[in-house]
Design brief:
207 residues, mainly alpha, Arc Repressor Mutant, subunit A, 2 domains, two-stranded antiparallel sheet, 10 helices, 4 strands, 59% helix
Amino acid sequence: MKDSRVEVRFRNELILARMEQLKIKSVAELCRKMKKPRAQGFVADLINLRRSPLCVDSDIQVPKWTKTAERLARALKCSPEQLFTEEQVRAACRPNKNRKYHFAISALDIPQLVEGARRLALPADVLLQEEQTRIGVEEAVRGAIAFLRPREAEVLERCVMGGETLKDVASEKGMTGERLRQIQSRALARLRRASVARRLRIAASGN
């Protein structure tokens, strides 16, 4: 069941970041610094890319910055060029001025969505290193569980590596969750003992 709605809005990050740097907490406060307290709607449209920061000079028919865009830049102590990229200007000039997209997801999926966004922001070399580490750990675990009893190995493969819940696996096998938890605990204990024994053998061999 989809019980949460996620909305995606297009906003001008350059303006928002500048506001954060100057500790301006709202559009209303920004407009007061611009000495245009009634311009909140116009400024909000600029931030939400619903209005172009350009207008056309009637004398020479050349685009120029609107007075509000110039006031906005002065209030944020920068130039208009530092607040609006060419792509943002083009986006604001498109016919659809109410671009807002939404989709429904389960509340349980939200942490995965946030984690996915975090990983997209990571450098490629970090992602590669994480993936190599994950593959190495999985290979080591699979090699270790090969020495477990079949039922113990299955529980670890499905619940620890496969992401299934103890409750689901127990229900499928006609067992109680507590019984399956005991099997998992015993399997993990066997792996720990095997790991300690391996380290002792390595130390004894001098390698």
